[in-house]
Every structure is written in C-alpha cells, then in structure tokens.
Amino acid sequence: QVQLVESGGGLVQAGGSLRLSCAASPRTFNSYTMGWFRQAPGEERQFVAAISWTGNRIYYADSVKGRFTISRDGAKNTVYLQMNSLKPEDTAVYYCVAGYPETGRYPDLPADYNSWGQGTQVTVSS
C-alpha cells in the first residue's frame, strides 16, 4: 500500500479556489492510479477525479468537469486537485486514493483503490 497525506483544505467562499495536495510514499508512487473522492455528512463517498500513473488518462465526475483539475508530479511524489469556481455543494471531506483499477474501466468505485488518506475538510460558504 501507499502512504498518503492530504493537505490544502479549508474554508472558502462560493466562486473561490483551493488546491489540494497529496504526498505519497515514494517507492511505488509512480505505478499507481491516483485519485480523489469526497464525502459529505450523511452521504456516501463520491468519486471526484483520477489520473493514471502515466498521466495520460484522466477522469472526472460530471459534477466537477470544467472546474477541477487533477495532476501529478512524479518528481515530488505528489498529486494535486485544483478546484476552481467552488460551490457550496462541493463541501465535503476530500480523500486522496491510490490503487490499480481494472484497465479500460472507468475508475470511479471506492473498491478500485486500496490506499486512502485521512481526508481534508473543504467547506464552501454561500
């Protein structure tokens, strides 16, 4: 498993931006698909975005397309989630994930990932 530590959450007004970072243990970082999920109170975990280990396949949930951007820096063993035009409904705990989703399948299930960070709170005020 990969050790993951998120940072960058906080409180922002609607329309604002935040960038989440996820630092991963370095030994096998570059072989994993990395992603982000989020969970609001009383709701199930929801897929947000994922990026393949090569960076050439990127996936977004429809709810964040055009507003969020996922990227990874192999040299820094870090994956990022740039969140722009934030909305109150984006409020949730955001989790960084790593795993080996089945090739060719849309990697939006929690079961696709065997490593999870502890989560970072994002709160968007209206």
Q: How would you portray this structure in words?
A:
This protein is globular. Strand 4 (33-39) and strand 5 (46-51) form a beta hairpin. Strands 2, 4, 5, 6, 9, 10 and 11 form a seven-stranded mixed beta sheet that branches. By secondary structure, it is an all-beta fold. It contains no helices and eleven strands.
Binned, the helix content reads under 10%
- Relative strand content: over 45%
The secondary-structure element order is: EEEEEEEEEEE
Distance linking N and C termini = 38 Å
Task: Give a brief outline of the structure.
With 126 residues, the protein is mainly beta. The chain has strands at 4-7, 10-13, 18-24, 33-39, 46-51, 58-60, 68-73, 78-83, 92-99, 113-116, 120-125.
